[in-house]
Amino acid sequence: MIELKSLTKVYPGGVKALDALDLEIRDGEFFALLGPSGCGKTTLLRTIAGLETATSGQVVIGSKDVTHVQPGARDVAMVFQDYALFPHMDVTDNISYPLRIKKVAKPARTAKAAEVGARLGLEGLMDRRPGQLSGGQQQRVALARVMATQAQAFLFDEPLSNLDARLRLEARTFLKKLQRELGVTTVFVTHDQAEALAMADRMAVMEAGHIRQIGTPAEVFQRPANTFVAGFIGSTPMNLLDGTVRGETLEVAGCKVPAPAAGLRDGEKIVYGVRPEYVTYSVEPVDGSIAGKVVLSESLGASHLVTLEAAGETVQVIVPEGDEPALGDEGYAVPRTDRALIYRDG
Ligand code: ADP
Ligand code: MG
């Protein structure tokens, strides 16, 4: 288990990378840390590893307060974004390097490297140097080096970002499966929401040194806690439309739509959120629909992402391939009320 208590990191020069952050990562879980570039993900990971010292707050690993413990004594292993392999060492030596630091004898080190290397499909490459390996192979060596240490927790800093799209998908499945088998607590940093949703048992969404939401991928996808998370999660961002409460309905983009929640205050200004996946397109007006004009239509393969302009707002709708309207058509976006959300932080 990893616990961060009111963790703050201010860099010399005054950048507050982590702001009184609280987080509990459970034993054995695959935890994804998601957020845009610069939000503090790497800093968080390095502070857990002990490569950065906390300005204030606590880091607890497995019920031991390690806030002031040296990195080498924290029993966590980190994979860096650029893998940080030693160019002059072969695969065996790269994998077994942490064991050399721990003064494990050479035959035992080599045996361990061979065992872990085989598990990661590196047999036959053990004598090569990093420069003689593909990006995907280098990444596996970095993983193998972490696994050889048998740490209490693995920390991954965007480990898939240097792979091309197809390899990245393969590595995703591979890494997830491996983590399941090993059952080692894993913190996985990414700026790719699809990666976090696909891989995590639970995830946190970060913004500017703060955690904006913690939950399972399903919880975060279905019920984003605020407009930041809503706009960040999903292959197409959620529609977020300014609205005003009018009794049982909402006035959104000049139209009346049913309120998805009870107890709203008449006249209150809100933000109405609904994913494009949960909005259908209609040629004819329908009760509770939003009238607009088609300004953009992008193919997603089996479907189209259609953008409507409606009274100064932009509404996106996913339409099955073949049913997409033409540019300039006047039509109606029909949101699913049971999938719509109300926000007050817009
Ligand atoms: P992320 O990994 O999410 O992209 P980082 O943790 O690398 O974010 O950075 C968080 C913030 O801290 C950024 O504003 C970044 O510029 C700043 N920062 C990171 N490392 C240092 C450093 N060594 N010195 C000063 N500022 C830093
Ligand atoms: Mg980073």
TrEMBL record:
Instruction: Please indicate which superkingdom the organism of origin belongs to.
Output: Bacteria
Zinc found in the keyword field:
no
Q: Domain ABC transporter, which positions? A: 2-233
Supply one GO molecular-function term: ABC-type transporter activity
List the InterPro entries. Answer: AAA+_ATPase (IPR003593), ABC_transporter-like_ATP-bd (IPR003439), ABC_transporter-like_CS (IPR017871), ABC_transpr_MalK/UgpC-like (IPR047641), CysA_C (IPR041193), Mo/tungstate-bd_C_term_dom (IPR008995), NA-bd_OB-fold (IPR012340), P-loop_NTPase (IPR027417)
- Which keywords accompany this UniProt record? ATP-binding, Cell membrane, Membrane, Nucleotide-binding, Sugar transport, Translocase, Transport
Among the entry's GO cellular component annotations, what is one? ATP-binding cassette (ABC) transporter complex, substrate-binding subunit-containing
Q: Indicate what this protein is called per its UniProt record.
A: Multiple sugar transport system ATP-binding protein
Source organism:
Nonomuraea soli
